[in-house]
């Protein structure tokens, strides 16, 4: 190319020579420029088509459980029998009917139509027996006005009592539980251990109506006229009544008893009055 340029340039003007050189430069640049990529290489990548998203079921259906048959609810029997004549209605007005006490351990004294037991010493039990007639089959109830009582402190009733050491003893604890025992020469036989009661109002001051039904060897306990439990024991068949209160700890206990009522049982033999219990 240089040879051609040198031989032919002798008879040409400088302008033509520059034009020829410019053309050569253009051709050379075109030869050195990068070649375009094939069409398929410059096309954009194919965009993948969107995939369908699974629908979220927030509250999936569940199988309906098979309905169980409704159980028939049988009411608790009240265990109350037909009552006969009223045998005793004691308003605690006759002081000679109940034993009293005044000591460092506490006091048993009459108030306004009530008999109050105030326990002053720790872990002491005060008892008062009613003098008079002896009964075998009966329903008795009285009102206990609890003035000062807490936790395992207790008060209660003696039934079919020959003495304070020979009787059936019903405890009402101040946390709302009941217990029935048999005392025989001072020894305790458990007939019904501590049982929670929905009717016994715990603590103090509260009022509870306590009832005992005795028929043969059957003893049934009631609170506010609602049956609590039943036991059987053949040892004591008759006796009088009593009340008691006990301190389980260092604090005092005060309970007042009033409105004692005793009824015969319909169809049951009314016991003879003024019988003297046989000492054991």
Molecular shape? rod-shaped
Low-pLDDT segments: 1-9, 71-76, 268-280
Tell me the Rg in angstroms: 53 Å
Give the amount of beta strand, in percent.
35-45%
User: Main sheet, how many strands, which sense, barrel?
Assistant: 9 strands, antiparallel
Please render the helix and strand layout as text.
Elements: H1 2-8, H2 14-32, H3 39-42, E1 83-90, E2 101-103, E3 106-110, E4 115-119, E5 125-129, E6 138-148, E7 154-163, E8 166-173, E9 177-184, E10 187-196, E11 206-215, E12 218-223, E13 226-232, E14 240-246, E15 253-265
Antiparallel strand pairs: 1-15, 2-3, 3-4, 4-15, 5-14, 6-11, 6-15, 7-8, 7-14, 8-9, 9-10, 11-12, 12-13
Protein name: 3-keto-disaccharide hydrolase domain-containing protein
Organism: Ornatilinea apprima
Features:
single chain; 280 residues; 2 domains; nine-stranded antiparallel sheet; six-stranded antiparallel sheet; 15 strands; disordered N terminus; disordered C terminus
Can you describe this structure?
A hairpin with a 2-residue loop joins β11 (206-215) and β12 (218-223). This protein is mainly β and 280 residues long. Strands 1, 2, 3, 4, 6, 11, 12, 13 and 15 form a nine-stranded antiparallel β-sheet that branches. A six-stranded antiparallel β-sheet has the order 5-14-7-8-9-10, with no helix packed on it. The longest helix is centred in the first third of the chain and has 19 residues, at 14-32. The chain contains three helices and 15 strands.
């Amino acid at each position: 190319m240089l040879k051609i340029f040198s031989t032919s340039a002798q008879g040409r003007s400088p302008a033509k020579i520059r034009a020829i050189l410019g053309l050569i430069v253009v051709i050379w640049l075109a030869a050195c420029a990068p070649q375009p990529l094939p069409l398929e290489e410059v096309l954009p990548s194919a965009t993948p088509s969107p995939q369908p998203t699974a629908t979220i079921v927030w509250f999936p259906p569940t199988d309906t459980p098979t309905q169980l048959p409704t159980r028939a609810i049988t009411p608790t029997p009240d265990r109350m029998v037909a009552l006969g004549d009223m045998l005793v209605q004691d308003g605690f007005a006759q002081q000679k009917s109940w034993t009293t006490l005044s000591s460092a351990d506490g006091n048993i004294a009459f108030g306004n139509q009530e008999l109050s037991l105030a326990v002053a010493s720790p872990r002491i039990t005060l008892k008062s027996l009613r003098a008079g007639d002896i009964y075998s089959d009966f329903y008795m109830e009285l009102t206990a006005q609890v003035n000062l009582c807490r936790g395992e402190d207790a008060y209660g009733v003696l039934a079919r009592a020959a003495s304070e050491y020979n009787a059936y003893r019903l405890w009402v604890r101040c946390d709302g539980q009941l217990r029935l025992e048999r005392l025989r020469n001072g020894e305790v036989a458990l007939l019904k251990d501590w049982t929670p009661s929905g009717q016994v109002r715990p603590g103090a001051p509260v009022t509870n109506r306590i009832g005992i039904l005795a028929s043969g060897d059957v003893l049934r306990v009631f609170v506010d006229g609602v049956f609590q439990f039943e036991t059987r024991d053949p040892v004591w068949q008759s006796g009088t009544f009593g009340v008691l209160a006990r301190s389980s700890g260092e604090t005092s206990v005060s309970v007042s008893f009033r409105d004692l009522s005793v009824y015969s049982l319909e169809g049951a033999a009314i016991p003879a009055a003024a019988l003297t219990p046989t000492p054991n």
